[in-house]
Design brief:
single chain; 249 residues; alpha+beta; 6-stranded mixed beta barrel; 31% strand; binds pyridoxal-5'-phosphate
Length: 249
């Protein structure tokens, strides 16, 4: 797809946010979600890359996405992405392919699915529609961008903030068996997901096969709550933004 020119995108977005300002919820209640979309307008049903595209930006107010910690079910039956596919991009089809696993997780009493890699069904990739982080011992670990993981902007921001807050963050392959053994040794202290809508969402329970990993209550966690607070403070301009992420309109 031909990307929209950056100036069209940004100037259009600034204008739209100005127009929609009455719809922006107070920062402690929610945010204005911004969703750019590019789709084909070719007058053709042939399956081929399109020649012409329409660029839209949708906005909608939303409240805190997951306010309570989420429980996740590790799926071995379905995969969200596979090597050589589109898992590290954002076509609507990626969401479609993930819906059944999520539905089955919800039917089983969980909030969403946790995804493993397609080849070995062994390495954790993402959590629902969020990137995922674990605190193991003193270290924060998150799956490395392998081509099957969405390189989320919130993931990137959280890694930057954590490092600047003095935490060690490692991007690596994370096997589910190792997570279970870290849990058994009492070293798995936190798990959280990151994404634009959720910002940072704590994970309460992880179900894998016949094991349920019960993580400590949020009040007993340090790293996830601290980085979430920092990110929200920067987003809502309560704290200075040394990174150039925030633009006042
Ligand atoms: C599969 C998936 N992973 C992660 C994310 C989080 O990405 P971001 O932080 O850019 O919102 C999203 C967001 O839509 C997603 O769809």
């Amino acid at each position: 797809m031909t990307p929209a020119p950056e100036s069209l995108f940004l100037d259009g977005l600034r204008e739209l946010v100005r127009l929609d300002q009455a719809w922006i919820p107070p920062s402690d209640l929610g945010a204005l979600y911004i969703r750019p979309i590019l789709f084909s307008t070719d007058p053709s049903i042939r399956v081929k890359p399109a020649d012409r595209y329409q660029f839209l930006i949708l906005t909608f107010p939303f409240g805190a996405y997951y306010s309570a910690p989420v429980d996740v079910l590790v799926t071995e039956r379905y995969v969200r992405a596979f090597p050589g596919g589109t898992g590290d991009t954002k076509p609507g089809g990626n969401y479609a392919a993930a819906l059944l696993a999520d539905q089955e997780a919800r039917d089983a009493g969980f909030n969403s699915a946790m995804w493993l890699d397609a080849q070995e069904r062994r390495y954790v990739e993402e959590c629902g529609v969020m990137n995922v982080f674990f605190v193991v011992g003193e270290e924060v670990v998150t799956p490395s961008l392998s081509g099957t993981i969405l390189p989320g902007i919130t993931r990137d921001s959280v890694i930057t903030l954590l490092r600047d807050m003095g935490y060690s963050v490692r991007e690596n392959r994370i096997s589910i068996d190792k997570l279970v053994s870290s849990y058994d040794k009492g070293e798995l202290r936190e798990c959280f997901g990151t994404g634009t809508a959720a910002t940072l969402s704590h994970v309460g329970r992880i179900r894998y096969r016949n094991r349920t990993l019960e993580l400590p209550p949020v009040e007993q966690r340090t790293i996830g709550p601290a980085v979430r607070k920092k990110l929200l403070a920067i987003m809502s301009a309560k704290e200075a933004d040394p990174y150039g992420w925030v633009e006042r309109i």
